[in-house]
Amino acid sequence: MGAVGRFPTRREVYVSRLQAEHLYKVFGRRSDEAVRRLEGGATRDELRADGATAAVIDASFTVDPGQIFVVMGLSGSGKSTLLRMLNGLLEPTAGRVLFDGRDLTALNRRELRSVRSRRISMVFPHFALFPHRSVSENAAYGLEVQGVDRAERAERAREALALAGLAGWEDSWPDELSGGMQQRVGLARALATDADLLLMDESFSALDPLIRRDMQDQLLELQKTLKKTIVFITHDLNEAMRLGDRIAVMRDGRIVQQGTAEDILVTPANDYVASFTQDVDRTRVLTAGAIMADPETAYGTRTDGGAELRSAGEVLAAAPAVVTADTPIAELFTPCSRSGVAVAVTCERGELIGVVPRARLLAVLGEPMKPERAPEPDGADGPGGPDGADGPDGSDGPDGPDGVADRAGTAASGAVAHA
């Protein structure tokens, strides 16, 4: 990799696989000056009046190895622009991106292309398959860019297609596949390169609801085995809650809250996040571990037969159900309705780590904790306003003057963004 340095070996351990540090992306005139103005408190409206559009403002986060990190927000929030800075498709106006401890923003074009072809793959929302190539050839395209010989790339493409549920379709053509199957080819193409980081930009948004659910299931099932590091972009809150180990909520170019799905549901950072999450089925997202009380709270309670519970063993024996911490609370209602004794929550070793009393279960279904009043993000447009509206390829915000996201080349560049 020349003077810039090397990537760490796979045996070396870092706290995070991916780290974004104070990223800004400003399109238009005098972008560096615009960043300084934003840091000084200028609003997006003030910048826009001077011919500059702030698509991403001071975004920072980390993604651990094997984690699915979901960035969610409405159209125009800046999420797709943010994603494209993570692999260098868009150059940040300010800030940096660290991948396994190495600053990607310091790489030259040749080095960056090498990283994208071997270590970072991208899955786009609209399949971006080559119509004149077979399913197998589409899945192998990233390997072809890497210079892998024909026999090996055919075998690796076959394995990736099997993982994606497309065994037996290798010789078919893209127009012979359903939308969901075409998206699986795009996923297989990313998997075939064995990249350490997958960037998925609204990858399931073009699919029908049932097929979209199937693709979410497929991704979660694959993740159990492959344990890839994934940054997933979506505007669908339920999808974010279902897939994300951690979630960042964006509005008007800024990340307004980060945390687990439970954090965001139970303790929203501001009124915007609270209103965003108000229609979510909390029983399918919150888990027993998120709402459980200390085991001691069950001591002194009595069973339906009148016996007093005095120890962890007695609580376990009397509990109407024994569940693990990751059990959705939707599964707790039936046992709680049958007994006044709390449901027991255990660790992998079967030891009591918490209890869910009936009253606690019912209380958590009420209003989320009232957020402290926080300043609203600047910009009068609000979520989904005309500023930075989605482009034809589903990305947020306008393309920069460098023409990175050339619309005429969407299919070709989308087919292997890492090339």
Describe it:
This protein has about 425 residues and is an alpha/beta fold. It has two domains: about 1-285 and about 375-415, P-loop containing nucleotide triphosphate hydrolases (Rossmann fold, 3-Layer(aba) Sandwich), CATH 3.40.50.300; about 285-365, CBS domain Like. The chain has 18 helices and 13 strands. Helix 7 (about 150-165) packs across helix 8 (about 180-190). The chain is globular, with a radius of gyration of 24 Å. Mean pLDDT is about 85; it is low at about 1-15 and about 370-419. Belongs to the ABC transporter superfamily. Keywords: ATP-binding, CBS domain, Nucleotide-binding, Transport. Pfam families: ABC_tran (PF00005).
Task: Summarize the model shown.
The protein has 419 residues and is an alpha/beta fold.
What descriptive keywords fit this protein?
2 domains; CBS domain Like; Rossmann fold; Gly-betaine_transp_ATP-bd; 34% helix; disordered N terminus; CBS domain; 419 residues; disordered C terminus; globular; alpha/beta
Topology of helices and strands:
Elements: E1 18-28, H1 31-39, H2 44-49, E2 52-63, E3 68-72, H3 79-86, E4 94-99, E5 102-103, H4 109-118, E6 120-123, H5 135-139, H6 141-146, H7 150-163, H8 179-192, E7 197-201, H9 209-226, E8 229-234, H10 237-243, E9 246-251, E10 254-259, H11 261-266, H12 271-277, H13 282-285, H14 288-291, H15 312-318, E11 322-324, H16 333-338, E12 343-346, E13 352-356, H17 358-363, H18 410-415
Parallel strand pairs: 3-8, 3-9, 6-7, 7-8, 11-12
Antiparallel strand pairs: 1-2, 1-4, 4-5, 9-10, 12-13
Helix pairs in contact: 7-8, 8-9
